[in-house]
Amino acid sequence: MAEPKWLQDMDRNEYLKEDFDASAKSTAGTTIEGIEKNDPEWLDKAAKKVNAAEGNDYVKLDSGLMTVNQLNWMLQNTIGELTFVDDNNQFLWYNRPKDPNAKMKAKRTPEQVGDTMKAIHPDVRDVIPNAKKVVHALRTKEAGHDEVYMPVPTGNLKELILHYYKRVEDDKGNYVGIYEWVQDLYPLVKYFCETTGQKLVIDPDATSGATYRRNSDPDAATSASTKAEEVKEKHEDKTDATSGASEHQFFRRLKIAFFY
Prior knowledge:
Blueprint: H1 5-8, H2 12-15, H3 42-49, E1 58-61, E2 64-67, H4 68-76, E3 81-86, E4 91-94, H5 117-120, H6 127-140, E5 147-152, E6 161-169, E7 175-184, H7 186-196, H8 210-216, H9 220-238, H10 245-259
Antiparallel strand pairs: 1-2, 3-4, 3-7, 5-6, 6-7
C-alpha cells in the first residue's frame, strides 16, 4: 500500500511494540475473559457468556433505537467493507456481506471474530510490521493524525481500492480501537464524472502519487510524461468553455484527491 510520509517516518522500534497477541485487556473494560481469543467459536461462546442482545432485542443507541436484526441488515447493505478492532488489538466485528458468495477485498470470515490481530494477519514479508505501524500511529495520534488513507495499487487504473483506518474514541477522547473501511472508489468516481460531464486525467504537474501511478499503469514507467501531455492536450481541446474556470479548478482538486 502507498503510505503517507508521516507514517513512513515513524520509529520502527516503537510501533513494533504493539501487542498483536492481545494479551492485555481493553482499557474500556469490554474484554470478555475466560474464552480463548482465537477459538473459531469465540462469537457464540462470548455472546452466551454475556447474554448478548440478538434477533429482535432492541438496542438503544445515542441517536436511535433499533433491533439487532435491523442493525445487521443495515450494516450488511452498507457500502464498503467495515471492520472493528478494539484497543487490545482483538478483532471483534465486520459487516459480513449479505451474499455469501461475495468476494471481499479484505477477506474476513465469521470464524475469525474474536481473533488477535496476529492471528488474522499472515506472517509474510512486512504485513504484520506494517499493520502494527498503522495501529500504533492511531493509538498515539502520531503527528496529530487520527486517520490513515492507504490506496492500493492494483495494476488497473479503473480499480481504485482504498483502505481507510479511523481512530475510535470514547466520549472523553480515549482511544478504544480502530475501524477500517475498504472500498473500490472507481464506481463512485465514474458515476460522478458521468453525471457532471467531467473526466479523470493524469496531472503532469502532480508532485505526489508517482509510486501509485507507476504501480497501477503498465505504461507509466516508460512514457508517463508523454502520455500525460497527450491526455492533457486532448482534455483541454474538448473542455467545454461554458463550464467555467471555477468548475475546472474544483474538479482538478477532486482529481488529485482521488488519484494521489
